[in-house]
């Protein structure tokens, strides 16, 4: 009886440790990312049959049904240009030029990986919808307060949580698909945070 | 003799086994849940579902793009091949297929389709009788997900693109 209880306790502890560490690892890993461009991260093996078990698990949790990189490259940013976590009560400017792809979009996701509820029902801008500067570049304000021009709201402004941005490059140019680390991507600069 | 070092080592070894099982099993479990959701909405496997634009209320699949209209079906080739058909617009569009372990084993986009319409057959193996002239894709798993992505180029074009993608289908042969 005593031995059976000991075995049961050891199994429960092992289950918590083993399965818990696996869940913690894949949940904190986002979409994974062996390639970094500033604050943006991407994985070159997302969706591919070469993906290792950890990448598959991360994709299942944070990017199910993602396409392979010859069709689409997914860059995700959880931090700004200085390395600080993106937070919903801060304001940011995402500024850049068209990345080398047929079509692109920048989308904001809440910490649960779903679209962030907001009064504007606006979650993204694409190469076909973003308002541009005179030189063709674009600036997108990201934050809780309404901004002129392109603006993606970070929720209702009442809560302080983390969020992520995903930049999708559909039909990337061949050089970009071959080496995503060489792509020039938008800067993410923090403008203000409540003190 | 003290036995606690043996118990500790055994627990750590068992934890490692559970860790590996969880890492390998997670993709299958999450795909199973996604397939069940799509099949429920569509009324079964090998039937397409046409969800509206993704919003904050959408909970089917993580990280949806609100700029696309998705059409999805669960393929099941265990009994017979499945024919995928769709009109192909002249803006970004793709047809992609995912195995039960999340692998994206096939994708084709509008630029790779010569005509304005695509027909593809999914089959479990190459020995099944199929319609002549239609490309066959062998699936690495008998069940998985088919996803059609249609870019909404503008709000004015949404109705037309929506009507077109509703002609996309998955049908057992």
Topology overview:
The complex is a heterodimer of chains A (195) and B (173).
Chain A: H1 2-28, E1 35-37, E2 40-42, H2 53-62, E3 72-77, E4 91-96, E5 101-110, E6 124-126, E7 138-143, E8 150-153, E9 163-172, H3 174-178, E10 187-192
Parallel strand pairs in A: 7-8
Antiparallel strand pairs in A: 1-2, 2-3, 3-9, 4-7, 4-10, 5-6, 5-9
Chain B: H1 4-42, E1 48-49, E2 68-76, E3 82-87, E4 93-99, E5 104-109, E6 117-123, E7 136-138, E8 143-151, H2 158-165, E9 169-172
Parallel strand pairs in B: 6-7
Antiparallel strand pairs in B: 1-2, 2-8, 3-6, 3-9, 4-5, 4-8
Structure description:
The complex is a heterodimer of chains A (195) and B (173). With 195 residues, chain A is of the alpha+beta class. In chain A, 22% of the residues lie in helices and 29% in strands. A six-stranded antiparallel β-sheet of chain A has the order 1-2-3-9-5-6. In chain A, strands 8-7-4-10 form a four-stranded mixed β-sheet, with no helix packed on it. The radius of gyration of chain A is 20 Å and the shape is globular. The mean pLDDT of chain A is 88. Chain B has helices at residues 4-42, 158-165; strands spanning 48-49, 68-76, 82-87, 93-99, 104-109, 117-123, 136-138, 143-151, 169-172. Chain B is globular. Chain B has a five-stranded antiparallel β-sheet with strand order 1-2-8-4-5. Chain B has a four-stranded mixed β-sheet with strand order 7-6-3-9, with no helix packed on it.
């Amino acid at each position: 009886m005593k031995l059976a209880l000991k075995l049961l306790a050891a199994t429960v502890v092992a289950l918590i440790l083993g399965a818990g560490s696996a869940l913690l690892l894949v949940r904190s890993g986002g979409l994974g990312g062996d390639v970094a461009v500033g604050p943006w991260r991407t994985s070159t093996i997302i969706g591919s049959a070469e993906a290792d078990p950890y990448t598959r698990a991360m994709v299942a949790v944070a990017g199910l049904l993602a396409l392979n990189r010859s069709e689409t490259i997914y860059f995700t940013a959880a931090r700004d240009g200085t390395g600080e976590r993106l937070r919903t009560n801060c304001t940011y400017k995402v500024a850049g030029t068209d990345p080398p792809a047929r079509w692109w979009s920048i989308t904001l996701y809440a910490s649960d990986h779903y679209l962030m509820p907001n009064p504007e029902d606006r979650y993204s801008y694409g190469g076909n919808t973003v308002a541009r500067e005179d030189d063709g570049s674009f600036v997108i304000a990201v934050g809780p307060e309404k901004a002129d021009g392109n603006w993606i709201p970070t929720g209702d402004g009442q809560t302080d949580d983390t969020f992520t941005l995903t930049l999708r490059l559909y039909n990337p140019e061949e050089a970009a698909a071959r080496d995503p680390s060489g792509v020039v991507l938008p800067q993410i600069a923090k403008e203000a945070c409540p003190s | 003799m003290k036995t606690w070092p043996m118990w500790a080592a055994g627990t750590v070894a068992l934890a490692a086994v559970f860790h590996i099982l969880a890492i390998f099993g997670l993709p299958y479990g999450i795909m199973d849940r996604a397939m069940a959701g799509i099949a429920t909405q569509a009324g079964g496997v090998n039937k397409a579902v046409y969800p509206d634009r993704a919003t904050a209320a959408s909970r089917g699949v993580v990280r949806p793009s609100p700029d696309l209209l998705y059409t999805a079906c669960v393929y099941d080739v265990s009994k017979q091949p499945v024919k995928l058909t769709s009109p192909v617009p002249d803006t970004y569009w793709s047809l992609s297929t995912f195995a039960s372990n999340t692998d994206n084993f096939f994708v084709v986009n509008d630029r790779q389709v010569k005509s304005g319409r695509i027909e593809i057959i999914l089959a479990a193996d190459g020995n099944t009788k199929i319609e002549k002239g239609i490309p066959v894709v062998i699936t690495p798993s008998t069940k998985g997900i088919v996803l059609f992505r249609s870019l909404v180029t503008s709000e004015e074009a949404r109705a037309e693109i929506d009507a077109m993608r509703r002609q996309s289908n998955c049908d057992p042969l």
